[in-house]
Design goal:
Layout (H helix, E strand, L loop, with lengths): L3 E2 L4 E6 L5 E7 L9 H11 L16 E5 L1 E2 L2 E2 L4 E6 L21 H7 L17 H19 L2 E9 L2 E2 L10 H8 L9 H16 L6 E8 L13 H9 L5 E6 L10 H4 L3 E3 L5 E3 L7 E2 L2 E2 L4 E7 L9 E5 L4 E5 L10 H20 L2
Antiparallel strand pairs: 1-2, 2-3, 3-7, 4-7, 5-6, 8-9, 8-10, 10-16, 11-16, 12-13, 14-15, 17-18
Helix pairs in contact: 1-3, 1-8, 3-8, 6-8
Amino acid sequence: MSSNWGNKVKFSLFGESHGAAIGGVIDGLPPGIELDIDFIKKEMDRRKPGADPYSTKRKEDDSFEILSGFFNGYTTGTPLAFIIRNQDNRSKDYSKLKDIMRPGHADHTGSIRYKGFNDYRGGGHFSGRITAPLVFYGAVAKQILYDNYDIRILSRIKRISDVEDKELDHINADADDLSGVLSNKKIPVLDADKGRKMEEAIENAKNCLDSVGGIIECMAFNVPAGHGMPFFESLESKIAHLVFSVPATKGLEFGKGFEISKMKGSKANDSFFYDEDNRIKARSNNNGGILGGITNGLPVVFSTAIKPTASISIEQNTIDIKNKQNAKLAVTGRHDPCIVPRALPVIESCMSIALLELLLV
């Protein structure tokens, strides 16, 4: 099982949804980086379960304990190891799922890949709970990017179910203004009315014992030009590797993404010009701030499709692998009718970690 990522800074994560703890190790951080522990806690709170009416009722405060690599408020340069203890795991909810495969989950594939020895409780290592260590690392990366490069990373809910937020101007958007619009909202959107309709879509799915998915748009402002490599070390490659490691990710597009295929080249190309201060500007950002795998100085923008929560209480057809027969299953337990709101800091972490890997000298 590969649970490691990175070259300049190596990150490994461990744990299972219903094990004693989850956590990670960040190896390669320079010494002397001051970490704002309160900021990390706030980022962890954005992802933690039970924080809003749309998330699972599992109560985890996601408190972390740093075990090494941090002393007197600064990184030491040695591996930064941390754990997050699991506190509210009801494993009995999953006792019958050892042999009954949940549709949409990795139960079947995990059982085959690990020869039946995988921890199936709450999805085990395949669970979205394992994204908590990713958010911890993302919070560290965000601080380094902001303190050293003034890079701001923000995200919004672009769509839930068939309710879509209004378009955002990726050339003229201001990070401070955008942060003010999106902050302190259960559903971070530009259009408040669309946000209410998204809430209604989630509530309707919940009442019908079903779930909905959506799209998250993530943006990085003030990213300097010239970072990245073509082909296998491109910024798109690094972001994609991380984003597709997040459970429930089913799609990724940069800039206009699939829509750019409908345009003519004269419209799709981002034409550059010099402004009155002799600075290089562009008239559009259809390519999402990346050309040839390398940052071009425009905001880096990508959108991620998140599938509907797989655990739903509607009875579905499945299989019993012990008795080798067809079966019916209505999943019980505590589950999110929509995981999109809690996934925002996870997707932001993917952006942060990928940029840190490129920019850290």
